[in-house]
Every structure is written in structure tokens, then in C-alpha cells.
Specification:
This protein has a single domain, classed as NAD(P)-binding Rossmann-like Domain (Rossmann fold, 3-Layer(aba) Sandwich), CATH 3.40.50. Helix 1 crosses helix 2 (about 40-50), helix 1 (about 5-15) crosses helix 7 (about 165-175) and helix 4 runs parallel beside helix 5 (about 115-125). The chain has helices at about 5-15, 40-50, 65-75, 90-100, 115-125, 145-150, 165-175, 195-205; strands spanning about 35, 60, 80, 105-110, 125-130, 155-160, 185-190, 210-215. By secondary structure, the protein is an alpha/beta fold. The strands form 2 sheets. A 6-stranded parallel beta sheet has the order 3-2-1-4-5-6, with helices on both faces. It is about 35% helix and about 20% strand.
């Protein structure tokens, strides 16, 4: 039940693999810092993938207690809790503090909230990479200052679904992490097909993390 969302998550992180400018940063690789904005199922699996792939410092951002607790168990070294840090400025400052004033090598936006995009760009270091995977629906526009992108010499990459071969990558990552990380616990609720409406209502109420529909 995790193969499909893991395909989305591994594809998103792979978008940051290619090296950036050596002067500032080298894209994603072992030891690199990663920020994950939004710790729903996709964000949690991005964090887990980063951990399994050898990331250095992994920073998760969310405001839902269950998600934060799971993120810590799946490899996040630090949590930026939006309940305590309520403004963009506070959250950006905290990420900079955790990355020695540089910003993150890679930021992956999984929240799907327009305001998270300029915030994530602000959290990205010079020469870093910002990956957008959260906006698979269209919730509207947001203002972005193009000077920041130019000044940071950064890359902004979109990630939409995955090629069929991504399932092999997803399964390999799941196999590598299944004994060390509680990946299966991301699925917190199971419903029968006849209970699909109840499953949707549970998602809307922000109870649990991932819902599964079973025969």
C-alpha cells in the first residue's frame, strides 16, 4: 500500500540529485541537508527516503502532532513546529539556524499550500534546489520575488507523478528501510470500500496520517 506514494516521494527527491554549482552546493547527495515542508504521507516518505539515502540533517515542518511524532520516528532530526513558530520569518530563521546560517541544500514542498512556495524558496541555500511536489491540484496563485531566485543562483524543479520504472526504486527503498524505520505505521486507518466516505471525512478532520481502502 506504500509503493505508490513512495514512487511519488522518491521521484520528488530524485529531482534534486543533479549537481548544482560547486561554488555553492552540489544538489542532493549523502550528507546534504533536506527540509520537508508538510508531513503528510508524501512528506513523511520524502523524509524517510532522505534518511535511507544518507542525507545529513533532515528538517520537517508541520503543525499536526501525529505527523510530527511520526516524522521524528522516520528520520527527521529536527522539527519546525508551526504551532510555536507562527510566521514565515520565524520558520526561515529557524531553518537557517539549523543549517549554520546557510539554508538547506534541498527543500521539498509537500504541503500543497501556495504560501509554502516562497517560504521554501527563502529556506533554500545559495546554489540549492527547491522541489515542488505538493501542488498536484490548483489552489491558486502566490507572489514570488524573482530576484531571490536569481540572487541565490538556485534551481526550482517540479515533480509530477513518476515513470513506471519508479516503482522499482520505491520498492528498493522500502526494502532497505522496512527493518529500521516504522514505515508501515504511516497507514493509520483502514476502511472497506463501503466506508469510503468515512475515510474522506477522516482525512478532512486531520485524524491519523494515511487512509487505506481495502476490499
Amino acid at each position: 500500500m506504500l509503493a505508490e506514494p513512495m514512487a511519488v516521494s522518491t521521484r520528488a527527491l530524485e529531482r534534486a540529485f543533479e549537481p548544482g554549482l560547486p561554488t555553492f552546493g552540489d544538489g542532493y547527495g549523502p550528507g546534504r541537508s533536506v527540509v520537508v515542508q508538510g508531513l503528510g504521507p508524501i512528506g513523511l516518505l520524502v523524509a524517510a527516503t532522505a534518511k535511507i539515502a544518507g542525507a545529513g540533517k533532515i528538517i520537517g515542518i508541520d503543525m499536526v502532532g501525529d505527523r510530527i511524532e511520526m516524522a521524528e520516528r522516520l528520520g527527521c532530526d529536527h522539527i519546525v513546529d508551526m504551532r510555536a513558530l507562527g510566521s514565515t520569518g520565524e520558520r526561515v530563521a529557524e531553518v537557517e539556524r539549523l543549517t549554520n546560517g546557510l539554508g538547506a541544500d534541498v527543500v521539498v514542498e509537500c504541503a500543497g499550500v501556495p504560501a509554502a512556495v516562497p517560504e521554501g524558496i527563502a529556506m533554500t541555500r545559495r546554489g540549492g534546489r527547491f522541489v515542488e511536489v505538493g501542488h498536484y491540484t490548483d489552489p491558486g496563485n502566490v507572489e514570488v520575488n524573482p530576484h531571490v531566485i536569481c540572487m541565490k543562483d538556485m534551481d526550482i524543479l517540479g515533480s509530477w507523478a513518476y515513470p513506471p520504472t519508479q516503482f522499482d526504486t520505491a520498492l528498493q527503498i522500502l526494502l532497505r528501510g522496512i527493518d529500521t524505520l516504522p514505515l508501515e505505521e504511516i497507514i493509520t486507518h483502514r476502511f472497506r470500500v463501503s466506508e469510503a466516505e468515512k475515510a474522506i471525512d477522516t482525512v478532512k478532520s486531520k485524524k491519523g496520517i494515511k487512509m487505506a481502502i481495502t476490499p
